[in-house]
Each structure stands twice: as C-alpha cells, then as structure tokens.
Write a structure and sequence with these properties.
280 residues; alpha/beta; Rossmann fold; Pantoate--beta-alanine Ligase, Chain: A,domain 2; 2 domains; three-stranded antiparallel beta sheet; 20% strand; binds pantoate
Amino acid sequence: MQEVTTIRALRAALAGAPRPVGLVPTMGALHAGHLSLAERARAECATVVMSIFVNPTQFGPHEDYARYPRPIEHDRELARAAGVDVLFVPPVEEMYPPGAASWVEVTGLSARWEGEHRPGHFRGVATIVLKLFLAALPDRAYFGEKDYQQLRVVERLAADFLPGLVIVPCPTVREPDGLARSSRNVYLTPEQREQATALYRALWHAQELLAAGERSAPALEAAMRRVLLAVPGLRLDYAAVVDAATLEPLRVVDRPARALVAARLGDVRLIDNLALQPPA
Ligand code: PAF
C-alpha cells in the first residue's frame, strides 16, 4: 500500500494504474462499515484508493471536529489489510489551500433533515467530495447507506459534474443488536450504548407496521417517535418517512420510501435509516 499526502502525489500514484479505479472516501476511525466499502471496491476495481480526511467544513462550530477520533496508525493497518492500494491522507491545507473560497451546494436534496439540523454540513460534504473526485478521478466511488441523505446528495453531485462516475451505495453494517456502525459510537457511555438501539428498533417498528398494512406516513412517524421518546433523556431531532429518491416527506407510502431518524443521547448525535418495503 502506497501512502500519499498531496494531490500531485495521488495523481502520480494513479497515473497508469489499472482501471477501474475505486475510491472509498472516509474520515478515518475505520470500522466494519468502512471496511465493507473497501471490500466491495476491492472486489469490483483493479485499483482501490481510500482517503482519510477529517473534513473541517462539514462540522458546525459546536460539533465534534476537534475531538473526532484520529487513530491513524490503526487505520493504516486496517486499510492495508483490506487491500487498499493507495491511501490518501492529506493535511487540511492540501484540500483547502490558503484563501480557499469555492463551495459546492447541492440544492433541494440538502435542504431538509440533516441539512436543517446541521446548517452548512452538506455544503462541506459536497465540496470535499468533489475535491476528492477531482483529485482521484475514480471510475467508481463507494458510500454507505448509513448516511442516506449524504448518499443521495453525492449521487446528485456526481450526476451533475462527473456523469461517467458510478456511485456505489453499500448496505449499512450493524452491530448484532441492530445499532448502525459509526465512528461516533465510541463516544457512547455503556448506558447510552444500550439506549442507542432505540433508533433501529424505531425503524423496524415502522417497517413492521407497514408490512401489517399501515401506509400512512404520519402514523408510521408517530409510531417511531413513541419508541424513541420512551428512552429517558433522548432528544429527538426527527423521525420521518420520505420518498427514497427526493427525500420529501410522504403522506402515504405508495412508492419506494425511507424511514429516517436522528437523535441525541447526551452530546452524542446518532442517525440511522431503513428502506421501507410496502407489501406487494
Ligand atoms: O461519510 C463520511 O465519512 C464523510 O462525510 C465523507 C463522505 C468522507 C466526506 O468527508
């Protein structure tokens, strides 16, 4: 595995590299979710690039940028074991040179949900993801469904700027009790870790009710809220049933839909989602 820290060195490493080139963008603190993206890329691509960059512009002023875990030695070992060919670990100044003043905004898809609760977040995500795409010029790029709204924003971004690039959505990797794998899970106390399963339980409850014939989106949302608000101290940001493509709220689940939840336990913010399958 070759490790590079500049865009110039990344391009040199990829010049003449066998194609397809697959890119796995990450912020490090790698876990089974990231490794599943790398495995998929390894299976589908001749060259696998992973980026590790904790992107400051996607964190709000009161969010966890400073304390975000950065276990680079361990990440390096995991990336190597996952078969990554090129590891791109740029410093902040490489991605945001002095005076950086250009931003990418994906309108519409970025507006609601995370966009509402984390103003500026998707502008930071879209900007860094486009910079990574332009630096690596991959044929395929791998994103987890865990961040479903991010996935939809990135799909739009790729379609708008790099139409040949294939965005590969990868299923959420979960703990045995259903909790979605996330780099932020390490912040949870043992009690919060148990309480955190409420997100997945709420999503499943909505799916079960739907399978039993409840197609009203507000009724499914109310059912998710009941599960979540039964957890002492949990602060709910949203529990929504949305059109899987547009992310607009639904009244009736009569098309491919997604249940989305976001909540805080102490100062840890968790998100999760589930594809909703209406009965045939
Ligand atoms: O999902 C993430 O880890 C980040 O949002 C990403 C896509 C690497 C951009 O910083």
